[in-house]
Amino acid sequence: MDYNINKCIPQQNPHSMMLQLKQNLVSELNADSIKKIGVSRGARTDRGVHALCNVVSLKLQIDQKYCSSMTNNKLIDKWNIDWDLLIQELNSQLPTDIKVNGIKHVTQSFNVKNQADQRMYNYISPSFSTVDYVQNICNQYIGTHNFHNYTSKKQYNDPSSKRFIQDFRVQALNFHNENYLKFTILGNSFMYHQIRKIVGTIYQIIQEKKDLSFIQDTFSQQQHSLYIAPQQGLYLREIKFTGYNMKKDIPQKLEIDFKQQKLIDAFEDELIKYICEQYESQNIFEEWYKEIQQYKL
Questions:
Q1: What are phi and psi of 171, to 5 degrees?
Q2: φ/ψ (deg, to 5) at 146
Q3: Pseudo-torsion of CA 76, 80, 85, 87, nearest 10°?
Q4: Residue 126 has what pLDDT?
Q5: 121 annotated as ligand-binding
Q6: Are 53 and 264 contacting, i.e. CB atoms less than 8 angstroms apart?
Q7: Which residue among 2, 32, 46, 158 is the active-site one?
Q8: For residues 12 and 15, what is the distance between their CA atoms, to the nearest angstrom?
Q9: Residue 46 annotated as catalytic
Q10: What is the mean pLDDT of each run of 10 residues along the chain (297 residues)?
Q11: How many Å apart are CA 249 and CA 106, to the nearest integer?
Q12: pLDDT in the model for residue 293
């Protein structure tokens, strides 16, 4: 599902979302219960964080009008479904800030949160250093580390504090003749505030002229107070199901096709424009840093 950015890209509660679906997609008996429909989502984001391409799993009641092969109200060929019509029906009933781009068959026991093995996020920020130097800092985060300082209510000895970052890159971005940085981070899973604190710490290192060894210190048992970057620049880019797609008995691979990718890429351009315009009009990063300095005083 993609989140429209005509306004502020709010997060839609799955429960209220299901109540808006008509009877030919979800029965009235099941529409009031998330458990009955089996709703799960691939990633949750902080308040104010955008989701470019999230994944939601649920049980849909396929009405006869979507199926070409029906006999005595029984589906003869489960693959012969007009998915485009079904997607159109879904989008007509969802709020304007949510859009369904595709539907895939999955196994009966499928749980999107558990089956997702990679999540990619992007963060857009005003440029605050050279790309090469920022990339050097990003490289320090690649691998498995203890991120207890990058979230809340996690102790150093909690096994879940250890997270694996597979890739972390930064590139230059220009919008309205203003320079920005676009961070792309790929990992198995991320904790609350983790990515925003990573970007904030990179900014902290540059502003306070800290040595790169500071990052290794943040992975230690010692407690550190780290900057947390503004939520407006972060968005969920993609969820991957590499392990699930390698199974032989799955109905379909969970992959984005060319048509869907074009829609997502076009939507991302609009999202980046929206984020940069927010930075320009509200001076978000400048105000954020002022607040940090006042708090330190």
A1: -140, 155
A2: -95, 115
A3: 100
A4: 93
A5: yes
A6: yes
A7: 46
A8: 9
A9: yes
A10: 33 49 64 75 78 85 70 54 82 78 87 91 95 97 98 94 98 94 96 95 94 97 94 93 92 89 89 92 82 64
A11: 10
A12: 72
Nearest CA to 60 out of 15, 13, 21, 3 is that of 21
Judged by phi (left if over 0) then psi (alpha if -120 to 50, else beta), residue 33 lies in beta
The two three-digit tokens of residue 208, written as one number = 């306070």
Q: What is the dihedral of CA 178, 10, 101, 259, to 10 degrees?
A: 0
* The pLDDT value given to residue 259: 87
| Phi (first) and psi of residue 67, to 5 degrees | -115, 135
Distance between CA atoms of residues 22 and 70, nearest Å: 21
- CA pair distance 94, 92, nearest whole angstrom: 6
Pairing of strands 118-126, 178-187: antiparallel
Instruction: Report the half-sphere exposure of 99 (CA within 13 A, side-chain side).
Output: 16
Cα separation values, 98 from 20, 33, 115, 157, 214, Å: 12, 20, 23, 39, 41
Token representation of residue 262: 């074009």
pTM of the complete model: 0.84
Q: What's the pLDDT at 3?
A: 34
Q: How much is the pLDDT for 40? A: 80
Instruction: Determine the pLDDT at residue 277.
Output: 92
